[in-house]
């Protein structure tokens, strides 16, 4: 890609614009995850002038985001050692032992105890196809064109993050990540109510993955899937109240604090009983205005990873221009890793075109976050 892509210096000067990382160029993934079989992970190394781009895509059959971080750091370690040690390196063994997860049994086995999960019969059945219904079926008109999404990139600096956390901790102690989540939940809901897409009496859900290794005694460098999906809920009217942020952050923190070993045992037991039917239901409703679902790389510690003298250190982290979930779930959002040197973090928001102006111009959002990039959309700024 040395001839067809920007140089590293050009990317750095431009602030690594999201629009430069086209989803169709960097390891495009064709279609949905079904039918199986599918690869467990894909890696793409792209050489550009003055730098290297490493693309990583994994399926959660293999591991979760924390395991992805471990794999990526191990890859960096192996690249560094290969440059420093002559001859073949001994095989690298990572911890993929499944005995702890396999032993989980009992706990809270009522699906009602897991508000972010549901049973959707055979939705993940191997070999099943989830193709879209063709147009004009049974005389019905063709479906409308899909809505246009606009990826938005914002920056939260260290001082603003501290101020946001202080405000959101008014009622109970919450984390910076809880505070970012609360602000995102409030502002997206406000934009959707203002645009007329969402009614104030609608029950809204905020959901995301929670690293649950500590609840079952697994180390942070374990390669596998040990997340628990949490959900916080309240009405749109409560979300858009003028002073709602501390309450929203408390709801998110409360949902996270409820997760314990019994929840992990219970959801694992349910999964064993219905391996192809247990679903994180918000992922199937990402396109609905009452759902806000995120993922996060905030604690990834990937930035600064040393790949050796030839490749250097990891200096930037980004998704493609479609976001962390790709084209299938464009109305999903993520928090990027903490930047080196205490420079805060970046936040990616997948916006529907009709909500861009309402979202971007909200005074509370602009108090804490600054726009990095909003391609092909008028911002009013």
From TrEMBL:
Q: Which UniProt keywords apply?
A: Transferase
Domain of life assignment: Eukaryota
Example of a GO MF term: acyltransferase activity, transferring groups other than amino-acyl groups
Signal peptide bounds? none
Using the record's annotation, list all stretches that form the Trichothecene 3-O-acetyltransferase-like N-terminal domain. 3-79
Kindly indicate whether the keyword Transferase belongs to this entry. yes
Is Transferase found in the keyword set?
Answer: yes
| One Pfam family it belongs to | TRI-like_N
Record protein name field: Trichothecene 3-O-acetyltransferase-like N-terminal domain-containing protein
**Highest lineage ranks of the organism?**
Eukaryota, Fungi, Dikarya, Ascomycota, Pezizomycotina
